[in-house]
TrEMBL record:
Stretches assigned to coiled coil: none
Species this chain originates from: Macrococcoides caseolyticum
Assigned EC number: 2.5.1.n9
Residue sites binding Mg(2+) per the record: 14, 40
Protein name per Swiss-Prot or TrEMBL: Heptaprenylglyceryl phosphate synthase
Homology family: Belongs to the GGGP/HepGP synthase family. Group I subfamily.
Gene that encodes the chain: pcrB
Length: 228
């Protein structure tokens, strides 16, 4: 059983983007703790299945971040379900999950599912626009979300998502201060060892996405950063 509590570093691959076999091998054999498969648009059964089968050649855990019903399929090691708590559209809180359970509940192994208390903070990102997220949050807002996720929802994970831009470390710290057993996942704009290190000092798990496609060497530098 794969458990998010063991992950410090994750690469997120977008099924809608091209990656060569050589680069995929470097990513999967980098020493990262898991590969997330997920993206915001142009996600199809074919491109998710293709990516899963290519990642499957390597012993690294392969995890689907389930953001659309179209990409729901068996065969992944684990499933992360984002619940975008600062979205104004209830579909992104629980609507997609509700529909998934309606269609596939009879064949779902719920031990393989982890709900992410997801907060989207980069207004320019596709995910913010798609989910109509309220991104202009204060330190107090993010702290209250963290408290809600830890104390009331009692979720295993909170995900701070700055997709496409490097986030405000003070916001991440404000969330972390409220978390005890909930694990804090951070993603967004990590494109160097220094940034990986800085966010790893605060978050429990860092997620690295876009730089895989723009600078593979820099992406590999984000793995196994030591903590000071
Ligand atoms: C995106 O959080 C991940 O969902 C990673 O963000 O693509 O900016 O690295 P980047």
């Amino acid at each position: 059983m794969y458990e998010v509590k063991d992950w410090q570093h994750v690469f997120k691959l977008d099924p809608a983007k091209e990656i060569s076999d050589a680069h995929l091998e470097l990513i999967c054999e980098s020493g990262t703790d898991a590969i997330f498969v997920g993206g915001s648009d142009n996600i199809t059964v074919d491109n998710v299945l293709d990516l899963m089968s290519r990642v499957r050649r390597y012993p690294v855990p392969c995890i689907l971040e389930l953001s659309t019903l179209e990409s729901a399929m068996p065969g992944f090691d684990h499933y992360m379900i984002p619940s975008v708590l600062n979205s104004s559209n209830v579909a992104y809180h629980n609507g997609i999950l509700h529909e998934a359970i309606k269609q596939f509940g009879h064949m779902m192994d719920y031990d393989l599912f982890t709900l992410e208390g997801y907060i989207v903070l980069n207004q320019e990102s596709k995910v913010a626009q798609l989910t109509k997220a309220k991104t202009d949050l204060s330190i107090e807002d993010i702290a209250a979300y963290a408290e809600m996720i830890e104390e009331v929802y009692k979720l295993k994970t909170m995900y701070i998502e700055y997709s496409g831009t490097y986030g405000d470390v003070e916001m991440v710290k404000a969330a972390k201060r409220k978390l005890k057993s909930t694990r804090l996942i951070y993603g967004g704009g990590i494109d160097s060892r220094a940034r990986a290190q800085e966010m790893r000092e605060v978050a429990d798990t860092i997620v690295v996405g876009n730089v895989i496609y723009t600078d593979i060497e820099a992406a590999l530098q984000t793995v196994k950063v030591g903590l000071s």
